[in-house]
Write a structure and sequence with these properties.
Elements: H1 7-20, H2 43-50, H3 54-61, H4 70-80, H5 84-94, H6 114-122, E1 128-131, E2 137-140, H7 142-148, H8 161-167, H9 169-174, H10 178-195, H11 200-212, H12 214-220, E3 230-237, E4 241-252, E5 255-264, H13 270-281
Antiparallel strand pairs: 1-2, 1-5, 3-4, 4-5
Helix pairs in contact: 2-3, 2-4, 4-5, 5-10, 7-13, 8-10, 10-12, 11-12
C-alpha cells in the first residue's frame, strides 16, 4: 500500500459488508422471492429503513460521505444495527462536517510518561504493558516479559502485537484461542485505520501483513471492527503450562490512543499459582522500556 489507506474505498466496503450481513427478516421487512442476486439487504431496502433516498444512500456507499450529516449517519447506523464501535468507525470514515477534525496525521513515536513507567515497574505480580497506535507495544513490566517473552530483545519495529500474532509462530503456541486473538487484532487495527487512514506507517503495516499472512488478509477483508476492552485469554506457557487470565484495558485520560493493559488470575486458582511461579522466575527479566 502506498502512503495511506483509501478512505472512500474503506467507507464503501464497510457499508457494503455491513449491509450484506442483514437479511430482510432481520429488520422486519418482507422478503419477496426466494432468489436474491446479492447477499443481505438491497440498497433500496437499507435506504427505506434509514429514511433516506436510494440515490443518497448509493452515493454514500460509493464513498461520497464528505457532506453527510451526523443525523443521517445515526439513522444508517440504526438501520444496519451497528455496534458502538462500528458506528464510531462509520463516523471516522465518513467525517461529517459536525465531527471535529483531529490535528494532523499520527507520526513518530508516542512517549510514555515517566510516572507511568514507574507504575509499571512497581507492579511485580501482574503482567502489565502500554500499547499505542498500530498495536505497538510501548512499555512493559517484568511480568509481561516473563509471560509474553522478552520484547526488549526485538527491534523496535517488531514490538507490535499484530506482527507478533501473525508472523511469530511462538504466539500461535502461546494463545490457545489463537483464531480469536487474530480476529481481535485485525478488528483493533481496522478501528485505528478508520481514525487515521492517512498514517503511512499503519498503511505499511497492513500491506506487509497482507502479503505475509493469508489469515490476516482474510480477516482484513471482513471489515469488522472493535475496541479493546476486557475479557479472558487462555494461554499455554512453555514454563508453567496452561493459564486462564482476565485482561482489563484502561485508556489514558490525557492520550486515548495509549492503553494500559493488565492480566490477572482468579485468586486461589491454578493460574494464580502459575503466575506466582512466573513472578519468581521473572525477577531477572528486563524492566519496562520506553520506546
Amino acid at each position: 500500500m502506498d502512503g495511506q489507506l483509501d478512505r472512500r474505498a474503506e467507507l464503501s466496503e464497510f457499508l457494503r459488508t455491513r449491509r450484506a450481513r442483514l437479511q430482510p427478516e432481520d429488520v422486519g421487512l418482507e422478503s419477496f422471492g426466494r432468489h436474491r442476486r446479492v447477499p443481505g439487504l438491497r440498497r433500496e431496502e437499507l435506504a427505506q429503513l434509514a429514511g433516506v433516498s436510494v440515490a443518497y444512500y448509493t452515493r454514500l456507499e460509493q464513498g461520497n460521505g464528505q457532506n453527510v450529516s451526523a443525523e443521517v449517519l445515526d439513522a444508517i447506523a440504526r438501520a444496519l444495527r451497528l455496534t458502538d464501535a462500528e458506528q464510531a468507525h462509520l463516523t471516522h470514515l465518513a467525517k461529517p462536517k459536525q465531527q471535529r477534525r483531529r490535528a494532523g496525521a499520527p507520526r513518530g513515536k508516542q512517549p510514555v510518561r515517566v510516572a507511568l513507567l514507574q507504575l509499571l515497574d512497581s507492579i511485580d505480580t501482574v503482567p502489565a504493558y502500554v500499547t499505542g497506535r498500530r498495536s505497538e507495544i510501548l512499555a512493559w513490566n517484568r511480568m509481561s516479559a516473563a509471560l509474553f517473552g522478552d520484547w526488549g530483545k526485538l527491534p523496535a519495529a517488531e514490538r507490535n502485537w499484530a506482527r507478533l500474532v501473525f508472523l511469530n509462530p511462538d504466539y500461535r503456541e502461546l494463545f490457545v484461542d489463537w483464531d480469536q486473538k487474530a480476529y481481535d487484532m485485525v478488528s483493533f487495527l481496522r478501528m485505528d485505520a478508520g481514525r487515521h487512514p492517512d498514517d503511512p506507517r499503519l498503511s505499511a503495516l497492513v500491506g506487509e501483513l497482507s502479503v505475509k499472512s493469508e489469515e490476516f488478509r482474510r480477516l482484513w477483508a471482513t471489515h469488522d471492527v472493535k475496541e479493546k476492552s476486557y475479557g479472558v485469554k487462555r494461554m499455554r506457557h512453555p514454563l508453567v503450562g496452561d493459564l486462564t487470565l482476565f485482561f482489563e484495558t484502561f485508556r489514558l485520560v490525557d492520550d486515548d490512543e495509549q492503553a494500559f493493559i493488565t492480566y490477572h488470575a482468579e485468586p486461589g486458582s491454578p493460574s494464580a499459582d502459575a503466575l506466582r511461579l512466573l513472578a519468581s522466575w521473572g525477577t531477572d527479566a528486563p524492566a519496562s522500556l520506553p520506546r
